[in-house]
tRNA (adenine(58)-N(1))-methyltransferase catalytic subunit TRM61 (Hydnomerulius pinastri MD-312), 373 residues
Amino acid sequence: MWSTNREVAAGDVVIIWQTRELIQPLLITPGKDFNSRFGHYKHTDLVGLPYGSKVGSRNGNGFIHILRPTPELWTMALPHRTQILYLADIAFITSWLDIRRGSRVIEAGTGSGSFSHSVARTIGSTGHLYSYEFHEARADKAREEFTRHGMGDIVTLTHRNVCKDGFTVDNSVDSVFLDLPAPWDAVEHAKKALRKDCPTRICCFSPCMEQVLRTVSALNEAGFTDITMYETLLRPHEVQQLPSPLPLSQVVGKLKKMEEKREEKRLRQIANSSKRKREDDPSATDSDKKARTDEPSAPQGKEEMKRQINLPDPATTEIDTSSSTQVTTQAKVNLSKASPEVRGHTSYLTFARLVPMLKQATEGVKENPVVSD
Ligand SMILES: C[S@@+](CC[C@H](N)C(=O)[O-])C[C@H]1O[C@@H](n2cnc3c(N)ncnc32)[C@H](O)[C@@H]1O
C-alpha cells in the first residue's frame, strides 16, 4: 500500500499536514501547484524530499509537513463522500471481528473507503476484502483510489445492492461488517457468505437504537449467538505538568512567616481591646487603671513575638534539606483532569458470532473439518 520509498516521487499520494484540523491528501503531479493559507508550493519542490520533511513555502507564508500515508492518516485526510468510520470504532471492530493477516472479510457499503484501507493493511496480501457499494459513482471513485493506493489485489469492489442481491461469495469469509441503513435485510445473505467450518463473526454499525433492535431480531432469527452491542466513546484527559514544589526549607520559612503575621495580628487585637475596656470603664479608680495598664499587652519587639509563639529561628534552626530538595527538584507533578464531555458517538456496534452446527461444519471447507467433542 502506498509508496515505501524514503523519498517522495512524482505520482505518490502524500499527506499534507498543515494543522491538526487541516490534513489533506495530495497526488504529486509535476507542473501543478499547491496553495493554502500556509503558503504556495510547487509539487516539484516536494519531489525527492524524505517523507516526514517540513517544507517552507515559496512565498514565506508558512510551512507544511509531507507525510507518508497510513490508514490512520488517510481516515483523517480523505475526501468525504459519505459518513465515515473513525479510528476508535475501526480499532474496536477489527479487534472484535478478529480481523488479522490472511483474513477474508466482507464490508458493505464501501462509502468513502475509510474502513477498507485499515482492513486492507491488516489482512495484507494473503487475505481478501470483498467490498460492496450500490452507489455507482461512489463505487468507481473508491475503486480508483484502491488501485492508486496499491490495494487493487487485496480488495474486490462490487457495485451492487447487497440487501437485495446478496454477496458474490458463499461459505467463504471469516467476518462480515455491515455499515448500511438497513443491515437486517443483509443478515441472511451474510450468513450464507460466512464459512461454515469454524466460528465466524459479524458486526452491524447503526446510528439509532431502533436499527439496533431490528438487527438484533434478524441476527437471532438467523441463528447468530453471543449478540452484544457496544458504543465506542472517547473521554479526553487534559494532562498538565505543575511547577516543581518548593524545597522543604523554603516551605518551612514561608509557613513561619505566615504564622508570625497571624500571631502579630492576634496580639494587636488583644492589646486594642484591653485599651478600649480601660477607657470605657467610668467606675475604675486611678489605681485600677494603673493596674490594668500593667496587664500584658502586645509585645513590641520581634524577639518577644517569637518567644510567645515559640517558633524556632530559621537562621539558627538546622533543617536537613538535602534529601527533600533532591526529591522536589526531581519530582514532576502531572495533573490529569478528565473532560466532563464524552465525545465520539457515531454509531452502535452490534456484534454476533455464527457457530456452525456439526452438520453444517462437515459440509463446509473439506480440507479443514471441524471436530466436535
Ligand atoms: C456510511 S457509508 C459507509 C462508510 C464506510 N464504512 C467508511 O468507513 O467510509 C454507507 C454506504 O453504504 C452504501 N449502501 C447503502 N445501502 C446499500 C446496499 N443495500 N448495498 C450496498 N451499499 C449500500 C451507501 O451508498 C453508502 O456509501
Q: What stands out?
A: DSSP finds 13 helices and 15 strands in the chain.
